[in-house]
Fold these 2 entries.
Entry 1:
Amino acid sequence: MLRRPQQIPEAIRGKIAKARVARLATIDISGQPHIVPICFAYDGRVFYSAIDRKPKRVAAEKLARVRHIRRDSQVALLIDEYREDWKRLWYVLVRGRAKLFSKRTRERSRAICLLKAKYAQYAGGMLSADAPIIKITPERITVWGEAQ
Amino acid sequence: MLRRPQQIPEAIRGKIAKARVARLATIDISGQPHIVPICFAYDGRVFYSAIDRKPKRVAAEKLARVRHIRRDSQVALLIDEYREDWKRLWYVLVRGRAKLFSKRTRERSRAICLLKAKYAQYAGGMLSADAPIIKITPERITVWGEAQ
């Protein structure tokens, strides 16, 4: 079911908030799709994800997702949970715009607080004080399966 | 690490083959990214996924992933596993071309056999005899984390 963000029922907001991982799709410089798993926090309206201290092969600014978002802000975010009982499968597909915060703003501080509150790993040092933050503002949300 | 498909070590091929779910990113008709979770089989070279009997809101031919692939065959497939011990995280990102099989060919029959062998749900009736099959041929494979 295609819904506007404000129509997401409480039960689904709960599933999204509880999920520990999401998959972020971006468009690469040649117009092809790219996906990475991300940790994220959801405040009931927008999503935040950090370029954290998990090992990276390149500096934050050169990371694929960062380069892609700078060029094309349209992204898709998938939250789902696999179960062997297929009657219990569900997913939430969020399509929207991504924005990068690298300067210290009040919103960025709030995002870092939300991420640290959700992930003990971040509170334990996996998130640097100057980590770039990706904000995703949903434009369309599709809910499928048990989550409906 | 970026690898050519034939350079994927055995250990990683094992992780891919064991994974029960992958996430498939396509480009929609307006050039924006789209993702769905999919069941898949991997024969060590290519990936197969079926348009199966899990509930759909539209007929197979109108499914988003089918329409997208018909228009733009470039896809990305992500196989990963979330763990709270972030030192043990891994993912495999496959970028390549998708092709749809809807006619009864020998390759399509083989793909259906592989899917039924992997998923008891398919052997149990969740896969119709005329299910369209998506074949994904890797062009680039990126391996990150514990899977390296």
Entry 2:
Amino acid sequence: MLHPDHLFDPDPTRRALARQLYESVKDLPIVSPHGHVDARLFADPGATFGSPADLFILPDHYVTRMLYSQGIPLEHLGIPRQDGKPVETDHRRIWRLFCANFHLFRGTPSGLWLRHELSEVFGIEEPPSAANADRLYDALAEKLARPEFSPRALFERFRIEVLATTDAATDALEHHQTIRASGWRGRVIPTFRPDGVVNLDAPGWKENIERLSAVSGVDVVDYASFVRALEQRRAFFKSLGAVATDHAALTPAAAELSPREADNIFWRALRGRADAADAARFTAHMLMEMARMSLEDGLVMQLHPGSWRNHNRPLFERFGPDRGGDIPLQTEFTRNLLPLLNQYGNDPRLTLIVFTLDESAYSRELAPLAGHYPALKLGPPWWFLDSPNGIRRYFDLVMETAGLYNTAGFNDDTRAFCSIPARHDLWRRASADWVAGLVARHLVDLDEARAMTVELAVGLARRAYKL
Amino acid sequence: MLHPDHLFDPDPTRRALARQLYESVKDLPIVSPHGHVDARLFADPGATFGSPADLFILPDHYVTRMLYSQGIPLEHLGIPRQDGKPVETDHRRIWRLFCANFHLFRGTPSGLWLRHELSEVFGIEEPPSAANADRLYDALAEKLARPEFSPRALFERFRIEVLATTDAATDALEHHQTIRASGWRGRVIPTFRPDGVVNLDAPGWKENIERLSAVSGVDVVDYASFVRALEQRRAFFKSLGAVATDHAALTPAAAELSPREADNIFWRALRGRADAADAARFTAHMLMEMARMSLEDGLVMQLHPGSWRNHNRPLFERFGPDRGGDIPLQTEFTRNLLPLLNQYGNDPRLTLIVFTLDESAYSRELAPLAGHYPALKLGPPWWFLDSPNGIRRYFDLVMETAGLYNTAGFNDDTRAFCSIPARHDLWRRASADWVAGLVARHLVDLDEARAMTVELAVGLARRAYKL
Amino acid sequence: MLHPDHLFDPDPTRRALARQLYESVKDLPIVSPHGHVDARLFADPGATFGSPADLFILPDHYVTRMLYSQGIPLEHLGIPRQDGKPVETDHRRIWRLFCANFHLFRGTPSGLWLRHELSEVFGIEEPPSAANADRLYDALAEKLARPEFSPRALFERFRIEVLATTDAATDALEHHQTIRASGWRGRVIPTFRPDGVVNLDAPGWKENIERLSAVSGVDVVDYASFVRALEQRRAFFKSLGAVATDHAALTPAAAELSPREADNIFWRALRGRADAADAARFTAHMLMEMARMSLEDGLVMQLHPGSWRNHNRPLFERFGPDRGGDIPLQTEFTRNLLPLLNQYGNDPRLTLIVFTLDESAYSRELAPLAGHYPALKLGPPWWFLDSPNGIRRYFDLVMETAGLYNTAGFNDDTRAFCSIPARHDLWRRASADWVAGLVARHLVDLDEARAMTVELAVGLARRAYKL
């Protein structure tokens, strides 16, 4: 069992307050408006999580990157190679390797989430080690085979009010349709992510466009039909419960092209003649266009800029994307977002939630922007920053200037379904601890503190995402 | 009444030390070497602050921006439109709107200052709310009508030793002259801010130059006469007590032009033919020139770079400047200030006080520069950063490298006169708390701590500004 | 005597844990894998530290910069002028000036180190002041004359396991040879620093190349012979115990040139015709080349980018380099290191230890890179950042994402030999305090904490530097 004071500042005054505030939110339902869980898990009532390695290691690039950074080849962790050459397939051996290196996760959020999952979901209190690896493997495998550890059963046990997945604009959303049709009451909703079709330099862009034509029923032959196809897809996502879109780009640059320019670039792209400058300008333009559509159809717009994807090219070529090789970049918002905010930022029909991996922008750019523009909300700490210190710095750097009510609550943003309660619990504890610090310094009173803690746990996310 | 331990760390050892240190400075006079209070308030002995909305809401863009960010139109807050269309004029209704949304200020410095002012200046202990809005309005209105709540009376009650205003280079300073002539003993001094004439792209630059000719008596027809006119104005400001100049620019770039280049650009500007590159180079040149003049006339030079003014263009067009739409930018000092520091930075006759909205420059550039160049002092946390956490980060990031004695104490930098005690009190509490932390960790002893706390409260500001 | 709780957080729970953890590492030997102590001190068994001013003031640009920043001319501190004009030579007067201004070091790491050295090395407990300057001078001078205060004696008393110096690629390492030949058992090893020959714009580059030819025995006439000469020098350094190289550059840019391009640039440089662009490209290329050599010869590669050397040009011209006028720059790693990391970063034979003066890169770029690439380790807080708060921020910003085991322990990086114990003690205290904070919040358990504290004190440095 997790220590009841897990994560709380040791000062007795503050800790007592943190406990009290945390108590009031710890059992609230989980609102998960942004993440990467596979909807397939919930489409099939008989789905399971597979082996302990399937659950804890293979899909979690936070885990594999740390092992890799210490010289453990990804082949030994069972990560499939692009060239099909053999990799470790014995999940027990993979699990042993992970357990023998569990010390690498000391003081990391991955270490905390893993311990939390093992303890709270599976009742395992020992930290993994070379010595107990086999015993833990057996205990986990035995539990994972039981029906009460099926994805749907855990969804309910975790008290998930809503779980948003992230889906390509070209996705047929068959799993979401199956879930709806199944009569199961869990709320799993898609999120519209058009990166693969709006970023001209996305891998496989041309095929994505063809797929877009196919799924939308709109023959995409020029910019105008492209826009119509996107509008069709957005409506379709909405029909399956989507409340939001999501956009990744190297920078948050937004700048409108003339219709003729947009059409020319799109024409060149269709013929394979668009260059890097075209792609950058088109992505910036499409951000404007997506804001315009959000204004009209009410989908909340999420922006996740500043990650250099697949920085480690040799690793990418061997293992494909999402292996821990995405590295953040300096990110500028004040100049880049100006055109978008000047055009749409004063319109209360738009909600634009912005994330960053560049903390230097928190107090300098993002908090002042969120504290001014009605349309802009600041998303929670993202990716590497979703950690005890990362969350603390976020509160410290953002809240005084943006104001709590211009933030968007929490996202778990995870592929690892079983880590969802751990991540929300960490956020709720960190929130309670931060608010307790304000009370202990007499900056807010206890009534205000209670209201703030509930907002952070569920209220802000529900309102920001119109849930 | 504010809690006696307001803002202090809850650790009992540290808190006891903080209390003791704070006690030794809390009643010291207020030294306010930089701010934006209207001198008119003190020129007329019968001046009042008007209604509660006049005092707390209308002039305070920290307050209006937060309400605006949550979708409240500025028209409802009584902010006048540039096109003269009607806005709310019922101050009681404006006040109610503010009170009903007071929760938005939870955990923000505005919230703390407002509570502090209400409590310490007006004896109102309840936080504003929809329920008590009318009662509070009446209580405040009644007090504001009394002579002991006149600006001059409060100036004395606040124990203000000196209050510096900020004034355009072209300002005739009639209110400062009236104050001097009136025999009233409050020390209200002007500060020379030439942005409107040295930044060629300032709105109304041509008219400003004409006004400069008029007030200086120097016919500005070329660069040489422009410089003479500026020297005349500086001397005039000094004659009314000015100790400093103030300079805002998008970047801190400083670079000397040849006299011919300066003259050519100025000539083009007079004919309306200067372009953006001209303006940038001329501003950089004038920063050098202003340092040269400061060396000669002894006026302390303040530099406030890195704010993108009027970022929200539609809002600017509707309501004019200073409505909360100024957003910080990444700011580079090491390369930009090099020419100025190489030319004047070793000269002890110059004092250059630098501010920033980009905290990433604190430990990286500004503290190392301040810890080296005799002329450079680091100003206190500016604007958004003048908050409990902002001040704590400043101490954390700056003091070890710059050294306390290369910093410039505190500026309240406010338009809101009645918030001055609250702001200085917050700084003094934060200072005492920071120094207490050093003592509690045995990094300085108590005698050193006492000296440091007094320096922070008044000593550093008095010396840096030659007061 | 230093307070036993020096530097520890005052919270009783955390402090008790910090004490306990610190106790377990405080007497461990000192591992000093990077620094700037003069090997000559240990080559001559009869060497002394000279006067108190020779020891504490003259060679320590942390000390002289702070005094200079407050208007004290370097001439008064006895710093020799390049033009040979007279400067203060009375060391007692220099000492008095330092003591009279000791308050300037309040709250700075220099102040802490100086107090620590005076107390722990020399038994002097009073803080220096105008009043006790002469008395302290006499007491120190008397001690410094004794054999037990000779460099070799203090080396042993300090329990230094290994001390790495930093040496030009062209250095004959005669002091290192003398130490080896002397039979004295102290381990003093050189570090290969080729900046003077690989940075084409280094002062005296041409003479450095001639010297390189002379010491290597390879006639450097083109790029190929240049590379051979460098390989010869690396082998020579290794033969005298070197385990690492060190590289400074304005940016961490790395980019391979074709052999022809490299040869062309080198050819132009030999003829004095290389320009700034050539120099930048060649430095970036040589970083790649040095990584390639490290892969082959096993020398650990250190990279210290982002310092603008000799920013204060007039001061540099009067007093030469290393007078406190080096100022950090914004530094970008994600794009700049990409070519090097793509080529060599997955190879476990390479260890690349990266440092920064730009803390904004810690959580944004460096921790994600170190948490991914097997070759990359993150060096400890460097230069200005090697301070109580600087170290705390490093732990806070780096460890969650990089993971403890991808960091490289501590470097003292000092020219001031007698400050070495103070610096390592400060690091060990700060480490113990940080780990204690994790335990107090139940994020790691006490066994893990003990292991982490030992790693931070010695284990990580020994492994990263293959000592």
